[in-house]
Design a protein that fits this description.
It is an enzyme of class 3 (hydrolase). Excises uracil residues from the DNA which can arise as a result of misincorporation of dUMP residues by DNA polymerase or due to deamination of cytosine. One of its GO terms (biological process) is base-excision repair, AP site formation via deaminated base removal. The protein is α/β, with parallel strands linked by helices and 315 residues long. It folds into two domains: 41 residues; 258 residues, Uracil-DNA Glycosylase, subunit E (3-Layer(aba) Sandwich), CATH 3.40.470.10. It contains ten helices and six strands, in the order αααβαβααββαβαβαα. The termini are far apart.
Length: 315
């Protein structure tokens, strides 16, 4: 009987060992699979990040490109945005063209910014959007945007500068340090707001955070916030570093409304006073717009023409 019990115990133990070996073998395989799955996920993530780097490589300005890569690379919203825009361009006409999506950043380096103007999304008609908020390509064959008309009329009323009717490209402002930033940087042909809520809002929030974090009271900027969306977007900026001018939006439906209407706000002369007297800049913004025939072909020629327009030095 003792021998029988011993045999039973040994058989049971060996059986258990066998089971344990099988379980061990099973878990060993599972761990191997987990490593394989992890490596596969890492490879996919790296490929997606590489697509993001390619997406941002379109930014010609090195300051902005490096700052945004440092701040945003690897964030899920930017990976999703990159894939969304790629898919949209395969199926639809998207504006502005790929090489002009980041034109606002290319035209106004991070270290050169004096003024920030926030728009909403690009014009959604062919040949209009050039990557700068409120601006239209030179010689665009389209109806003159009423918001831009109200903006240039306010420049005329505020500062007394008459602007040519064919001057619609605001690149001249951008080259002086005015960041003309739309909240959303692309749009589908003929469909306003079609690219809202796909990641651009977070991306342009990051741009504003970078401006805020890299500025000091000695080199603050003036924010021209036209309308509630622009005000909401910039609600977290440091009021001790920067100066803020608030008004309604320049659109036909809004430019005369609220307690601070855009029309009559004198926002352009007020901006220049802040730049010269509060923030200590040597030069204000020349808010005039040379016509296509007058505008210089390079920055040196533009600077010579700007010096001839001395109205802002009287502020």
């Amino acid at each position: 009987q003792i021998q029988t019990n011993f045999s039973l115990i040994m058989t049971t133990s060996l059986a258990n060992v066998g089971v344990k070996r099988k379980i061990s073998d099973f878990f060993g395989k599972a761990k191997g699979n987990e490593k394989s799955v992890t490596l596969e996920k890492d490879e996919k993530r790296l490929k997606k990040e590489e697509r993001v780097r390619t997406f941002l490589s379109v930014i010609k300005d090195e300051e902005w490109r490096n700052a945004l890569l440092e701040s945003e690379i690897g964030k899920k919203y930017l990976i999703d945005l990159t894939e969304f825009i790629s898919g949209e361009r395969k199926k639809y006409a998207v504006y502005p063209p790929e090489e002009e999506v980041f034109a606002a950043l290319d035209a106004c380096s991070l270290s050169k910014i004096k003024v920030v103007i926030i728009g909403q999304d690009p014009y959604h008609g062919p040949g209009q959007a050039n990557g700068l908020a409120f601006s239209i390509k030179k010689n665009a064959q389209c109806k003159y945007p009423p918001s831009l008309r109200n903006i240039l009329q306010q420049v005329n009323n505020d500062i007394g500068v008459s602007i040519s009717k064919n001057a619609t490209d605001l690149s001249y402002w951008a080259r002086q340090g005015v960041l003309l930033l739309n909240t959303v940087l692309t749009v589908r042909n003929g469909q306003a707001n079609s690219h809202h809520n796909h990641g651009w809002e977070q991306f342009t929030d990051a741009i504003i955070r970078i401006i805020d974090s890299r500025s000091s009271p000695k080199n603050g900027v003036v924010f021209l916030l036209w309308g509630k969306p622009a005000l909401t977007k910039c609600k977290s900026i440091s009021k001790s570093k920067h100066r803020i001018i608030i008004s309604s939006h320049p659109s036909p439906l809004s430019h005369l409304k609220t307690d601070s209407p855009f029309t009559g706000s004198n926002c352009f002369s007020r901006c220049n006073k802040f730049l010269l007297h509060d923030l200590g800049y040597a030069h204000a913004i020349d808010w005039s717009l040379p016509s296509d025939e007058e505008e210089g072909t390079n920055k040196e020629e533009d600077e010579k023409k700007k010096k001839k327009r001395l109205w802002y030095q009287r502020l």
